[in-house]
Amino acid sequence: MTDSNDEYPIAPPAPLKGRGAVTNLQGRYEINQREAFDDGWVLSSADDDFGTPALRTQVFEERAKSILTRNASPDIPFNVSLNPYRGCEHGCIYCFARPTHSYLGLSPGLDFESRIYAKVNAAALLELELSKKSYVPEPIALGVNTDAWQPVERDRRLTRSVIQVLHDRGHPFAAITKSSLIERDLDLLAPMAVRGQVMAAITITTLDADIARTLEPRAATPARRLRTIKTLSEAGVPVGVSIAPVIPFVTEPDMERVLEACAEAGASSASFIVLRLPWEVAPLFKGWLAAHFPDRADRVMSRVRDMRGGKDYDASFATRMKGEGLWADLLKQRFHKAARRLGLNERQRGILDMSHFRRVEMARPPLPDNPQLDLF
Fold it and tell me: Tens of pLDDT along 42-60?
């Protein structure tokens, strides 16, 4: 068993307003590693007379080389995904995508939620991909790694441009988000829903606004997300709720209440995922626990390990989404019992109509100035 003195910082940094991570933990690919050390000069938030400066979000434009990502994971219900952004300002402390910022030489901590990369050519790349004769259409999952409707989308509108391409080509997709901004795009989503080409899932971890404010600091409030479920449902868009992640002793007690509220709002389906702590997410999450829930941090991690074979995380396809053991089984029973009682998951979902897809051949892009001529 891990000694709690080694697991949590002696004096956790004061949380930054509007941010999930409490540190800028180094990524695992950085050459020079630094270790925090308490020399007695650490100030608590109460001692800080100067105040903590706000961390400004920076957006960097990126011209991606490709836009569709393919996977063969047996526990994921889609094969193709599209993410218009890297990094996510929502700042969810538990986000499994945080470690991807390590590939950029950045921190999976505060960098992940404050240094956002916008794939400005996302729609053009998608248009090109769909025009290829070799392209075989299948549903695309939108916004799986980072939220496609995060705050930067209000101005950038990259997700909107991607949906416009999908709408115009009759290509089905499924979206998942914590943002009410998805309502902006109902003029495109509603007609696609009539043709059976779109479905949406809204992630709600808890109904407790105070917990959500620290857990998912820049996402829509739980009450606002319920309104989004209602709005999408009334517009004819099939919508479900994703309770992800379930965090023992933090959001787990709320599971049944979340399902009840979502069913009342118009959700027709539901799913859940147990807290996942891959790579740098584990120390970041422990830092968050120490800062916000020091009274229950040990209990939370002990229960997590009970469902992960004694480890912080087990990446096995068979168990990584739902966990294993007694407590994982009890969670499954609670979820399925509540879902049946509320009439959720009664209709088959996941079948999107591919018959409306239209392939449009694009003109060959112009050659650059002074091109190098081919030999053949």
Answer: 444 444 443 455 789 999 9
Residue 14 near residue 48, CB atoms below 8 Å: yes
Of 27, 21, 95, the closest CA to residue 275 belongs to 95
Would you tell me how many other CB atoms lie within 10 Å of the CB of residue 283?
19
Residue 347 confidence (pLDDT): 77
Residue 355 lies in a domain: no
Within-domain flag for 258? yes
- The SS3 call for residue 59 is strand
Identify the bridge partners of residue 201 per DSSP, sorted by sequence position: 176, 240
Q: What is the CATH number of the domain that holds 311?
A: 3.20.20.70
Res. 349: pLDDT tops 80: no
CA distance 359 to 315: 38
Render 237-267 in DSSP notation, one character per residue.
Answer: --EEEEEEEE-TTTTGGGHHHHHHHHHHHT-
DSSP 8-state class, residue 130: H
Check: CB of residue 209 under 8 Å from CB of residue 223: yes
Q: Residue 319 is encoded by which pair of tokens?
A: 């168990």
- Burial class of 304 by CB neighbour count within 10 A (0 to 12, 13 to 18, 19+): buried
Could you list the residue range(s) of the whole structural domain that residue 156 is in?
Answer: 61-342
Q: Picking from 8-17, 64-73, 171-180, 245-254, which range would have the lowest pLDDT averaged per residue? A: 8-17
With beta carbons less than 8 A apart as the criterion, state whether 312 and 301 touch.
yes
Indicate if the alpha-carbon torsion angle 102, 301, 307, 262 is positive or negative.
negative
Number of domains in the chain: 1
245 cis-preceded (ω within 30 degrees of 0): yes
Query: In the chain, how long is the greatest CA-to-CA distance?
Result: 72
Residue 32 within any structural domain of the chain: no
What pTM was computed for the model? 0.88
Q: Is 176 helix (H, G, I), strand (E, B) or coil?
A: strand
Asked if residue 367 belongs to a domain, the reply is no
> Which of these ranges, 22-36, 233-247, 260-274, has the smallest mean pLDDT?
22-36
Distance separating alpha carbons of residues 209 and 187, to the nearest angstrom: 30
Handedness of CA 15, 19, 21, 24 (dihedral sign): negative
Half-sphere exposure of 274 (CA within 13 A, CB side): 28
